[in-house]
Amino acid sequence: MTIPKREALAQRLGQAELGLQKAMRGLDGSPTARTRLAKARIEYRAAEQEALRVLGAHQALEVIEQLAYAP
C-alpha cells in the first residue's frame, strides 16, 4: 500500500470519527439529531470496514510473498 493511500485511509477514518463525535455531542433526542447520529455511525462503519479490507488484503499479500521466498 502506498503512502498516499495510507494517508487517505487514515484521513477518512479520522473524519468519520470526528463526525461521530460531533453527532454524539449534538444528540438532544430530536429526530434530526438521531438521524445525524445514525448517518455518522454508518460512515464510521464503512470507513472501518474499508480499513480492515485494505489492511487485511495487504497483510495477506505480505504473508504470501514471504511464503514464496521461503526455502
Describe this structure in words.
It is a single chain. The protein contains two helices and no strands. The relative contact order is 0.13. It is elongated and about 65 Å long. 87% of the residues lie in helices and 0% in strands. With 71 residues, the protein is mostly helical.
Structure characteristics:
mainly alpha, 71 residues
Provide a quick synopsis of the model.
With 71 residues, the protein is an all-alpha fold. It is built from two helices and no strands. It has helices spanning 3-25, 31-69.
The number of helical segments is 2
The count of DSSP E runs of length 2 or more, i.e. the number of strands, is 0
Helicity level: over 70%
Biggest beta-sheet profile: none
Which percent range describes the beta-strand content?
under 5%
- Estimated radius of gyration: 17 Å
First CA to last CA: what distance? 26 Å
Secondary-structure element pattern, one letter each: HH
Helix/strand layout:
Elements: H1 3-25, H2 31-69
Helix pairs in contact: 1-2
